[in-house]
Amino acid sequence: MQQIHVIDSHTGGEPTRVVIAGGPPLGNSSMAARLECMRSQHDHFRSAVVNEPRGSNALVGALLCEPADPSCSAGVIFFNNVGYLGMCGHGTIGLGATLAYLGRIAPGPHRIETPVGIITMELHSTGEVTVGNVASYRSAKNVTVNVDGIGRVTGDIAWGGNWFFLTNDLPCPLELRNLEMLTDYAWRIRQALADHGITGDNGGEIDHIDIFGPPHDPHAHSRNFVLCPGKEYDRSPCGTGTSAKVACLFADGKLTEGDIWRQESIIGTVFEASAVVRDGRIYPRVKGSAYISADANLILQNHDPFLWGIRELR
Ligand code: PYC
After folding, report:
1. pTM for this structure?
2. Whole-angstrom Cα distance, residue 137 to residue 291?
3. d(CA 121, CA 107)
4. Would the N or C end of the chain have less CB density within 10 A of its end CB?
5. How far is the CA of 301 from the centre of ligand 1 (A)?
6. How confident is the model over 63-72, as pLDDT tens digits?
7. Which residue minimizes the CA distance to atom 8 of ligand 1?
8. Closest CA to 242 of 162, 123, 153
9. Residue 263 pLDDT more than 80?
């Protein structure tokens, strides 16, 4: 029997499960190398933690690691129902709330190692967390793709720690009651991008689709629907997606340093974003709150036919 100590939280409705103890041995190299080790040798661990019957398709896992860089407070590898994420904004906010709950960090800024670079995570005395993300940028503007069963859809391709296709072309109002239609629409866009060989830089797969429309909250600037790689929607406004959006707004001259962008999610939760410019590069900052929902041990019994989770649900 194996035990895995986890802390569950949600950030604007989107769940995160931080693995505190019981993770696989991944060595002491960079987070990118450790992610590759986990992917190639311990992928069953990912599935056991986030997939049913212990998890759900919406759950994002965060394996807490000793950092390789001593200037960092922690390292982290994010994963989901189908694979791995370069970065995760809502997950980092969940990680901040988790480390605060455990009494492992005090309010103030902390450096965190991720597979795509070092980020900052500032814990505020209010319990809110601001993520200082990796440099984000738009790689292509106004890309039109022919989508099966839909027609032409136009959007931007941008990096916010993951690759995004961001579009204002709406198939219907951004309402939770339209979830099925939005999911189908976004999934078709994703497939069309792949079919037409449209990628991020260096062939990076565009595995997140971010659809924007008018907000409900009069204090927010926009509402979004984000489809994640495993065909599940983000309940939060998506930290890396909001970072990609901030990069696009900057590139269009619609946002400058110090401006605030309030991004509302499909369930009405809001992230507050801004950006810092350093050496000509845009570093988005995303602020939100997370709430602890469980402090538990996952049990893996050797005779359980679903010891490693139910894989390939999608
Ligand atoms: O907040 O960056 C994010 C995120 C990515 C996938 C789900 N949430």
Report:
1. 0.97
2. 30
3. 10
4. N
5. 31
6. 999 999 999 9
7. 238
8. 162
9. yes
